[in-house]
């Protein structure tokens, strides 16, 4: 049994189940093209090796954290160009997680195992669709290209991991404007008075079970990357404990004086006023909007 230090890259396709249900053959074809035309050349160029694929998941190993992060950025940039040729509902948005740790190597087939691999998978679940999340161990030894930066996402309690893990997102140093129209919360809303507002989200699922939570906009303004809505209390600020809600389902954020919702590649989707929200394409909310998260439909009102 061989052990070695490695930078582990774990990736997963956001919304894969929903894409397969809608167009199984087409999704499979696009996934194989992405593996062949994007992932393999980017991994080789970064000095790594593709350990294996399983469904929509991919695992790669690098001898250098710098090489792993560079390959991750290369992959996401190549995937953006790959997606340009696809319709919006067909675009493939991978979450990438990177960790630096010790791995156990199976000498027969060169597969890798161990806590380092498990942590990379958990960190991947914290990444945004089309984004990259890394552990502190990776951030501490990696210098990014000048056009990218690490954004501190704080410590998180990850599933089946006993200790908190500090997460950083890799983002463009000058992020592009978010997609989607901007609609103010009301005609009288201004940035100056936003901190005085609390919004209540309340409603029920299809069987009548009730759910609600409140969002104070002063707290939302203090979180530049917003609040995550989902089933997992360990990974989300706003929790909806329902089976149709993904662990990390959607993100609520404030852009200027506009409230926006972004689907995070959920299994059962997010909708605003009956219109499905495409993953990583935020749309605006306002008081009176109907927000559907999985099977739970919520109305929004100002307290």
TrEMBL record:
Pfam families: FHA, Guanylate_cyc. SMART domains: FHA. GO terms for molecular function: adenylate cyclase activity. Residues 7-124 form the Guanylate cyclase domain. GO terms for biological process: cAMP biosynthetic process; intracellular signal transduction. CDD domains: CHD, FHA. InterPro entries: A/G_cyclase, Adenylyl/Guanylyl_Cyclase_3/4, FHA_dom, Nucleotide_cyclase, SMAD_FHA_dom_sf. Residues 227-277 form the FHA domain. Transmembrane segments: none annotated. PANTHER family: ADENYLATE CYCLASE, TERMINAL-DIFFERENTIATION SPECIFIC-RELATED, PH-SENSITIVE ADENYLATE CYCLASE RV1264. This is Adenylate cyclase, class 3. It comes from Enhydrobacter aerosaccus. The lineage of its organism: Bacteria, Pseudomonadati, Pseudomonadota, Alphaproteobacteria, Hyphomicrobiales.
């Amino acid at each position: 049994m061989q052990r070695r230090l490695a930078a582990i890259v774990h990736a997963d396709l956001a919304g894969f189940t929903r894409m397969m249900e809608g167009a199984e053959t087409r999704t499979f074809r696009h996934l194989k093209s992405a593996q062949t035309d994007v992932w393999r050349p980017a991994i080789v160029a970064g000095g790594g090796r593709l350990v294996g694929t399983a469904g929509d998941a991919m695992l790669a190993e690098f001898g250098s954290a710098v090489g792993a992060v560079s390959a991750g950025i290369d992959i996401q940039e190549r995937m953006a160009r790959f997606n340009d040729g696809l319709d919006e509902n067909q675009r493939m948005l991978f979450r990438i997680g990177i960790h630096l740790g010790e791995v156990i190597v199976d000498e027969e087939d060169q597969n890798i195992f161990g806590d380092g691999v498990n942590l990379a998978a958990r960190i991947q679940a914290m990444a945004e669709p089309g984004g990259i999340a890394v552990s502190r161990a990776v951030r501490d030894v990696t210098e990014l290209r000048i056009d990218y930066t690490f954004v501190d996402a704080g410590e998180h309690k990850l599933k089946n991991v006993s200790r908190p893990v500090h997460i950083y997102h890799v983002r463009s140093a000058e992020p592009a404007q978010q997609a989607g129209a901007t609609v103010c919360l009301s005609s009288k809303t201004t940035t100056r008075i936003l901190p005085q507002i609390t919004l209540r989200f309340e409603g029920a699922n299809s069987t009548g079970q009730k759910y609600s939570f409140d969002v104070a906009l002063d707290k939302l303004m203090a979180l530049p990357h917003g609040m995550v809505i989902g089933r997992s209390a360990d990974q989300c600020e706003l929790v909806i404990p329902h089976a149709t809600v993904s662990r990390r389902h959607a993100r609520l954020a404030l852009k200027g004086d506009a409230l926006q919702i972004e689907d995070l590649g959920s299994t059962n989707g997010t909708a605003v006023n009956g219109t499905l929200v495409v993953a990583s394409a935020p749309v605006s909310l306002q008081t009176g909007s109907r927000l559907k998260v999985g099977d739970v439909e919520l109305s929004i009102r100002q307290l």
